[in-house]
User: Fold this.
Amino acid sequence: MAEKIHVPTVAELNAKGVTPDVLFWVGCAGSFDERAQKITKAMAKILSHLEINFAILGKEESCTGDPAKRSGNEFLFQMQAMNNISIMNGYGITKILTTCPHCFNTLKNEYPDLGGNYDVMHHTSYIQDLINQGKLTFGKGDYKGKKITYHDSCYIGRANGIYDAPRDILKKLDAELVELKRCRSNGFCCGAGGAQIFKEAEKGTKEVNVDRAEEALETKATIVASNCPFCMTMLTDGVKHFNKEGEVQVMDLAELVANANDL
Amino acid sequence: MQIAQQILFVIALGIAIYFFYKNVSKIRRNILLGRDENRSDQPKKRWSIMLKVAFGQTKMVARPIPAILHFFVYAGFLLINIEVLEIMLDGILGTHRIFAFMGPVYDVAIAFFEILALLVLVGCVVFLTRRFISRIPRFHKPEMKGWPTKDATIILITEIVLMAAILKMNATDQILQARGVDHYANAGSFPVSQYLVPFFDSFSTSTLIVFERVFWWFHILGILVFLNFLPYSKHFHIILAFPNTFYSKLKPIGQVDNIGSITNEVKMMMGDPSADPNAPPPESFGAKDVTDLSWKNIMDAYTCTECGRCTSVCPANATGKVLSPRKIMMDTRDRAEEIGKRMDSGITEPDDKNLLTYITPEELWACNSCNACAEACPINIDPLNVIGQLRQYLVMEKAEAPNELNMMFTNIENNGAPWQFPATDRDKWTTEL
Assistant:
């Protein structure tokens, strides 16, 4: 493992008179959820490895308001949004990178109307750009020929039409991509969206994440690649439901990329 | 005799157009019960979406078999209308095959229409089979019980009967033409109906003329009746699909509009100088009834042909929850119809019902907001948009969110995260790198 990485906050850089090129928006899951923190760390390692001038808001970051908005609490959403916007505008933030599709969607599509205009990127597109620019290469071939299936998160896929970037990354990893039966625009939700992850599901015959995990297991892939901390939770639980956690790993694209670079 | 037929025809046509116009106006009025929303920007983009999605049927191809069958029926509907134009002119002017002067072009056209008619017929038969013999699950969800299934059956059978009439009309016509009967000049070629000739060949000329007239009248009256059935039917999509796709949402499918009146309130609370202190406070939040929805939501509802693609891809529905996005749209339409009917009977005071009389909170809270429904709709109907507005009403007006969601709201308010973690721990992960 490389030497200790320091992740600066925007305030810290600001005190030195520096504005980060990229604000890494960590999001609540990425900050607090133990599993999702690993995704956050992987992304931070990639950024640090490439010596990108980035920073986080740290304690100044607060929920984007997305789960409130999807559940119908527009008031709370706008309060959160406007607070976040005033902080980010105060620091002169222009570019945001996030590992959460839900943060991505609201920052990119719903913040502009409230005065928050940024170039917002989800890490799938961001990593693909880094690969295309030749900044990120994969020499080791950890995943060469490995059967990997990819789960389209709703808010990167359908909601924002990003289908190719994640697949291109997997191709660059030399992995054998096995598509799920329901993929791309026909992708099936992990069960977390619409604030479902925060509550018990309504009465039904099956859990959504179990349905999706079952489909992923059918592909016989040993890795299920995802791009969303909430999908991560749901799919991991789904795989556990079938007692397959020993054989099948759910991994975020950022983690795969970081691993392939020994970060 | 001829003139009597012409007069009868003009009367029938007049009545049909009058009632159709009247009923379509009512639907238009019901759609406009919704609140205002601008969906007329970027007309170029809108025309292109309409051409692609409605005219070009691009979203149908996701399911190839129904796409091909539907294309037969759709092409038949569009093109056979050219022949209907001829039938109308013949009916008014007392002519027979008024476009026959086009000679070979006419022959090719009639041949083409016959093939289309056969394809429509085949399409509808297969559709009936899919619905009632292979029993495709999406056609048998609870919301399809009763009228919706009857409606579908009426549509399919009517189309089969109408197409059969056109082919039988042509069969008798070509026999009359061959016998050189006056008024039945040689025109058209009949690649399909020629096979029906043996069934009619043995009849006398006068009987055949009666048959030909009966089929002709049956076909055109059938079309006029069918036209007037449309406003009462899910089949109205053949008209509304075009405007509905024109007024599609142009922003990314995941974007949900911010409520402007709330923006002003929040700005005032935050002491933002750009807030308008004189703006009226918001009257209500979200939608309780169709009148709180946007007109586009109601147009969506009237456009829905209940194909159930939305419901078949809905993760909640697939896992046995009560939510069915198709039912959300059907309920929206039925409620708009209910309000419209009250207006028709001159009742001005509001009833004690609203859209939430039709849609339960259990349905609304089962939604994953995954947008699979909106993506799957071949004519860009957006059920999630309606669900979102109803949720807003439940949360902001009634404070009736599920308990866990209320806890989530409290957490966001108190510590800036949906869970109960101290905000000071937000960057704790950085110490573990």
